[in-house]
Structures are given as structure tokens and as C-alpha cells.
Design brief:
- The complex is a heterodimer.
- Chain A is an alpha/beta fold.
- Chain A has a single domain (about 1-250), classed as Rossmann fold (3-Layer(aba) Sandwich), CATH 3.40.50.620.
- Chain A has helices at about 35-50, 70-80, 95-110, 130-135, 190-195, 240-250; strands at about 1-5, 10, 35, 55-65, 80-85, 115-120, 140-150, 155-160, 165-170, 175-180, 200-205.
- In chain A, about 35% of the residues are buried.
- By secondary structure, chain B is an alpha+beta fold.
- Chain B folds into three domains: about 5-115, Acyl-CoA dehydrogenase/oxidase, N-terminal domain (Butyryl-Coa Dehydrogenase, subunit A, domain 1); about 120-225, Butyryl-CoA Dehydrogenase, subunit A, domain 2; about 230-380, Up-down Bundle (Butyryl-CoA Dehydrogenase, subunit A, domain 3), CATH 1.20.140.10.
- Chain B has a four-stranded mixed β-sheet with strand order 1-4-5-8. In chain B, strands 2-3-7-6 form a four-stranded antiparallel β-sheet, with no helix packed on it.
- The chains are: A alpha/beta, B alpha+beta.
- The interface between A and B is medium-sized, with 11 and 15 residues.
- The structure holds flavin-adenine dinucleotide.
- The site of flavin-adenine dinucleotide has 22 residues of chain B, from strand 1, strand 3 and helix 11.
- Flavin-adenine dinucleotide binds near residues 129, 154, 198, 206 and 359 of chain B.
């Protein structure tokens, strides 16, 4: 079985994240760049399949600037077998539709039985790219999963919905997206770190891929920085604070 | 030499994250409850920390002494006691991997490297500490077996370990009559004393190990009869550099806490960091740590290259780094004022843990003797 894990390099959520207000893009120099944690969970799911069946091949695929290669390398040190890095100046600021089209073309190029992605990235938070890829490649989409079992026959998974839990399954090939319910990635061990350099990272540019020219794209109309956090409301209890609290919660639509 | 390679940086990052997530949150509790976290040691083993500089052939990580210094500094930033036990374990693994024959290495190294089995190093005795060559534990040959009798004291990991490298006397010829013998747990006649009540290092057991007609096959002997003292001393060279790195990590953590504290704590209308008198103290602390780091890297590099000055440099580095770590931890307490004395601030534990690094694996007095060419028979 060949599993491709989609991996996005994002600013570390532990740091202060910044928007470049002129371009509307994130300021990549403002914080450490790391593998999106949700993608590490996706990688862990793939590696567990590999633990159970050594013949499983795990490939990570990332579209991003040159810097993304460090995240691909990190995934190789954690245990992925090979990496594919799509990098092209023409992709700077690509929107969700374009990203999905490029990743779908790269996936066709790489080949796969299963694709695993995070349900949404911690930076853009669009959460639509995996579904668009599934559409491009006519794959069953098993999105927003809380658990999954992969085998050569197919995927069985559970998805949390507001009314309860759905048990779903699909034959391969299929595309899965995982949520925070999945386990965090294991630590890379020393052997993994030292052997990562010997593993192959294939670099693809737009010229290597068969991606149709975009018919249009979303444009950023306006960006505003998140306002500085204001101090919270303090209620002093003079015997009416319960009522005041209920009013506060109700007026902010929190209850 | 002073820049980390990409691989080394990745290793430092990983170990720092492991230490921050798996050790730091529990280290105060382990100290208080005297808990030896076998599960966490096993996790460290899975990452390759059980046989850092043992060959890859039987499951070691095949890395350098310099890598080990980097690793122990990071582990000790979170917990000097656990870091130091992992160092002792690595010394045992390396001794078997380096001085064992192929069968011995194949039999023992894999489960040691993964830390499924832990190792202890048994040199010190009630009557022989600094003067280790005066040890009295006897191993008498009886057919295909050795019969061991005697007592080892201060043995780290004792009772929890699966393998004990025991330096025992096979002839009455001083340091030349000592032989290294591997004793597995569970053999009849092997017993342990109570867990010693200690100033620090509470998260790992220290016990006496008693041998009462303990029989092990002759095939458990490492190297030749009479080579044990040399094996024990060679193990300690690397051990001393690692122990120095454990002091460096503890001291570094204490230093960083102090900088944060002085920036936050206000007195006389301004944060304490603005007192130049205190800034000078910080400068001295940081310089002392960097001096130690530099010595440790130099000594480790010398060991890696098998240089003749390695023994001396390791002794110097151990002396410098274990004194630096302790001094910095002690200064950190002073600069924290009363808070430094409270367990919740984590500094008094660092000081208690680092104190013993100046005593064990050769006291810092013995380091000075080694630096000036002791023991006399080794002087050129
Ligand atoms: C927590 C802990 C864990 C330990 N773990 C282990 C272990 O795992 N395995 C093991 O084998 N041992 C272990 N040890 C023992 C340790 O290595 C010894 O305690 C140490 O070597 C000192 O020996 P000693 O205690 O007999 O002191 P002594 O040798 O009695 O020394 C007393 C003092 O005299 C000084 N001194 C001695 N001789 C001289 C000299 N010639 N010149 C100048 N000064 C001298 C010493 O430096 C020291 O200050 C451990 C000790 C402790 C406290």
C-alpha cells in the first residue's frame, strides 16, 4: 500500500503569527516554520499502518516555498520513506483552488492508494483543499475523522457529527482527513534523523506537472490585523452577579 | 568544530522536545516520591538514547561522544537525575559493546540499547572508593564458572537493572588483578541493600549490591582476566564527559530561570535585572557555563579521535563542568532570594542533584590527580 501524506509548513502556533498587511500573506519570517501539527497526526496514522505492515510505503507531499524542504526532511526523520516538494515561484500566494489543482496533479504524478491530510491547516483555516483534491481525482472523501483503520481492502473510519458518530468506509483509493482526535506524531529517533538525509526528496515545478491554467482566483480585498486583546469584563458580586453573568453570556450569544 | 551540523541541530531539537514533554513536567514529583520512571527510560531507549555511542551492529546509535555531550546537556536541562542515570547506562552499554566478544555483544547489547534492560556499573565498595584498585570483591574460578563474594556500594540503578558489570578481584596483584564480570539479575546469591536516602538524585535508586556465592559462567567475563581495571577506567572517561554535560544542562536551566526571574521581579522601583551588580553575576554565570561547554566539546572530540590526551582532558572537563554547574545553580538560588529556597521554583533540586556530580565517577580531587599524571604507574 502506498500512502501519501499531505504536509503543509506553517508558522509555529506557539509564536506570534503575523500578516503582511501589504500583500495579505502571512509574514513567514515572523515565526518559526514547522510542520502543521494536524499533518503530523496524519503522518502518525500512516506510520502506524507501516508499523503493522512493513511493505507500506509512506510518501509526504508538500507544496510550498524553498523553506518547506526542512519540514519534508523532518517528516522523513520521523519515518516517512520519501518526500515530494512542489516548489515554484509561480505558486506564491496560490489560493485554495489553485493549491488543490496543483496537489491533485502532483498526486497523479506520485501515485497512491491512500491520501491522508489534516482537516484544516492552522494558518489558512480554509479546510477546503482536501475536498477539492478529492473532486479533481474523483476519490471518495472521508473527512473530519476521529478514528480510522487502513487496510489493503479499504478504509473504515468514524466521523463525529453534531448528532453522533458516523461509521463510514470506502474502497481504495481514497482520501482521508484527520482531526485533533488522532495521536500526535512520534518523536524522530536518532536513526531516523541520521538516515533522513539519505532518503529521496523529489522536487517538482509547475513545468513537471499537468495543471490547467487557473480560470480565476480569489483576490484579497482587504486585511486587518487582529485587534490587540482588550481586558475582559469584571463583575463585582453585589448579589446580582448571577443575573449579570447570564445577561453577558446571552448578549454575546454564548448560551 | 564549534558549529553544530544540521544533523546535530536536529538531534538537539528532538532531545530538547523529548525532555520538555516527557521529563520536565514530572521531575519534581519523581524527586519527591523517589520514582524511577522505567517507562520514560524505555521511551528514551526507543529514540536511540540507550546506546548513543555503541556501534549500530547490535542496536546502538553509532554516534559520537560530542553528540552525547549535546544530548546529555538537553536531557539535564529538564532533569539532571534521569540524564545522569542514562549516562551511567550508556557507559555500561559501551563497555560491553567495546570489550565484549561477538557473542556477548549480540546477547546483551540489543536489549540494553533499547533500554528494555538497564545496566549498572559496580566498582565502588564500602572500603574502596577513590582508591578503586583496592577493591576486595572476589571472583574465584571454579570449572566453567566464577564464584563471586563481596559487597559493592553506591550502585546507581541497583535493584532495577538487569545487568551488572562487576569489577572483581581474580588475583592479588592490585589494579592488575581486577576482572570485569557481567552478572545478570536474578542469579542465586545476588541481593540488594535498601535504597539510600540521599540529598539529591532521588529519581534513581542507589543501593548496595551483595554477592554471596554468586555463580556466573566464565563466558560472562569481559576481556581477559586482569583487564577489568583498565576497562572500568576507560568507561569512566566517557562517563565523566557525560556527567559534566549533565551539570552543564542543570546549570544552564538554572541560569535561564534566573534571567527570567530578574526581569520580572521588581525591587526599589525597577526590575532587578537593572542592578548592574546582579548583571555582573549573570555574566560570570554564563561565562562559567560556556567555559564548561567548550571544555566538554574539546574533551569529547579528543575521545572521538582517540587522542592520547583524552584521559587528561576528560578529567579537566569533568572538574570544570561539574563545578560550574553546581556554582551556577547555587548562585541562581541566591539571585532568586527566598524563592530560590522553595521547592516550587525548581532551583534547590538542581543544586541538590548537581552536588553529587562533583563526587562520583572520580571525585574532583581525584580529577586533579589524574590531570597531573596519576596513578603513578600510568605516568609516562
Ligand atoms: C549517588 C551516588 C551514586 C553513585 N553511583 C555509583 C555507581 O553507580 N557505581 C560505582 O561504582 N560507584 C558509584 N558511586 C560511588 C562514587 O563513585 C564514590 O563515592 C566516589 O568515587 C568517592 O569514593 P568514596 O565515597 O569512597 O570517598 P573517599 O574515597 O573516601 O574520599 C573521601 C574524600 O577524600 C578525597 N580523597 C580521597 N583520596 C584522595 C587523594 N589521594 N588525594 C586527595 N583527595 C583524596 C576525596 O576526593 C573525597 O573528598 C556513587 C556515589 C554516589 C554518592
Amino acid at each position: 500500500m502506498k500512502i501519501v501524506v499531505l504536509l503543509k509548513q506553517v508558522p509555529d502556533t506557539a509564536d506570534e503569527r503575523k500578516l503582511d498587511l501589504d500583500t495579505g500573506l502571512q509574514d513567514r519570517d515572523a515565526s518559526d516554520l514547522v510542520i502543521d501539527e494536524i499533518n503530523e497526526r496524519a503522518l502518525e496514522l500512516a506510520l502506524r499502518s507501516k508499523d503493522a505492515d512493513k511493505s507500506t510505503e509512506v510518501v509526504v507531499l508538500s507544496m510550498g516555498p524553498d523553506s518547506a524542504s526542512t519540514s519534508v526532511r523532518k517528516a522523513l526523520s520521523i519515518g516517512a520513506d520519501a518526500g515530494v516538494h512542489v516548489v515554484d515561484d509561480g505558486l506564491a500566494g496560490a489560493d485554495a483552488a489553485r493549491t488543490a489543482a496543483v496537489l491533485a496533479a502532483a498526486l497523479k504524478n506520485v501515485g497512491f492508494d491512500v491520501v491522508i491530510a489534516g482537516n484544516e491547516a492552522t494558518d489558512g483555516r480554509g479546510g477546503v483543499v482536501p475536498a477539492m483534491i478529492a473532486e479533481h481525482l474523483s476519490l471518495p472523501l472521508l473527512g473530519n475523522l476521529v478514528s480510522a483503520e487502513l487496510s489493503a481492502d479499504g478504509v473504515r473510519a468514524e466521523r463525529q457529527v453534531s448528532a453522533g458518530t458516523q461509521s463510514i468506509s470506502a474502497p481504495l483509493p481514497a482520501l482521508l482527513t484527520v482531526t485533533e482526535s488522532f495521536d500526535e506524531a512520534r518523536f524522530p529517533n536518532f536513526k531516523g534523523i541520521l538516515s533522513a538525509k539519505k532518503k529521496k526528496i523529489t522536487v517538482l515545478t509547475l513545468a513537471d506537472l499537468d495543471v490547467p491554467a487557473p480560470s480565476g482566483r480569489t483576490t484579497m480585498v482587504n486585511t486587518t490585523e487582529r485587534p490587540a486583546r482588550a481586558a475582559g469584563v469584571k463583575l463585582t458580586d453585589d448579589g446580582t452577579s448571577a443575573t449579570a453573568l447570564v445577561e453577558f453570556l446571552a448578549s454575546n450569544r454564548l448560551i | 568544530m564549534f558549529d553544530l551540523s544540521d544533523d546535530q541541530q536536529a538531534i538537539v531539537d528532538m532531545v530538547a522536545q523529548f525532555a520538555a514533554e516527557e521529563l520536565a513536567p514530572h521531575s519534581a514529583e519523581w524527586d519527591e516520591t523517589k520514582h524511577f520512571p522505567l517507562d520514560v527510560l524505555r521511551a528514551a531507549g526507543e529514540l536511540g538514547m540507550g546506546g548513543i555511542y555503541a556501534a549500530e551492529e547490535h542496536g546502538g546509535s553509532g554516534m559520537s561522544r560530542t553528540d552525547a555531550v549535546l544530548i546529555f546537556e538537553q536531557l539535564a536541562k529538564a532533569d539532571p537525575t534521569i540524564a545522569a542515570y542514562i549516562s551511567i547506562h550508556n557507559m555500561v552499554v559501551w563497555m560491553i559493546d567495546s570489550f565484549g566478544n561477538d557473542e556477548q555483544r549480540a546477547a546483551w547489547v540489543p536489549s540494553l540499547a533499547s533500554m528494555e534492560t538497564l545496566g549498572s556499573y559496580c566498582l565502588t565498595e564500602p572500603g574502596a572508593g577513590s582508591d578503586a584498585a583496592a577493591l576486595a570483591t572476589k571472583a574465584v574460578r571454579d570449572g566453567d564458572e566464577y564464584v563471586l563474594n563481596g559487597t559493592k556500594s553506591f550502585i546507581s540503578g541497583a535493584g532495577a537493572s538487569g545487568l551488572y558489570i562487576v569489577m572483581a578481584r581474580t588475583a592479588d596483584t592490585g589494579s592488575k588483578g581486577i576482572t570485569a564480570i557481567v552478572v545478570p539479575e536474578g542469579v542465586p546469591g545476588l541481593s540488594f541493600g535498601a535504597n539510600e536516602k540521599k540529598m539529591g538524585w532521588n529519581a534513581q535508586p542507589t543501593r548496595q549490591v551483595m554477592f554471596d556465592d554468586v555463580r556466573v559462567p566464565v563466558s560472562n567475563r569481559l576481556g581477559e582476566e586482569g583487564s577489568g581495571f583498565g576497562i572500568a577506567m576507560k568507561g569512566l572517561n566517557g562517563g565523566r564527559v557525560n556527567m559534566g554535560a549533565c551539570s552543564l544542562g542543570g546549570g544552564q536551566a538554572a541560569f535561564e530561570k534566573t534571567v527570567t526571574h530578574l526581569k520580572e521581579r521588581e525591587a526599589f522601583g525597577t526590575p532587578l535585572i537593572n542592578q548592574q551588580a546582579l548583571l555582573f553575576r549573570l555574566a560570570d554565570m554564563e561565562t562559567e557555563l560556556e567555559t564548561a561547554r567548550t571544555m566538554l566539546w574539546r574533551a569529547a572530540d579528543s575521545l572521538d579521535r582517540g587522542k592520547p590526551d583524552a584521559v587528561k582532558l576528560c578529567a579537566m572537563a569533568k572538574r570544570v563542568a561539574t563545578d560550574a554547574g553546581f556554582n551556577v545553580a547555587n548562585e541562581a538560588i541566591q539571585l532568586h532570594g527566598g524563592y530560590g529556597y522553595l521547592a516550587d521554583y525548581g532551583l534547590e533540586k538542581i543544586m541538590r542533584d548537581l552536588r553529587v556530580h562533583q563526587i562520583l565517577e572520580g571525585t574532583n580531587e581525584i580529577m586533579r590527580l589524574i590531570i597531573e599524571g596519576w596513578p603513578p604507574h600510568e605516568r609516562g
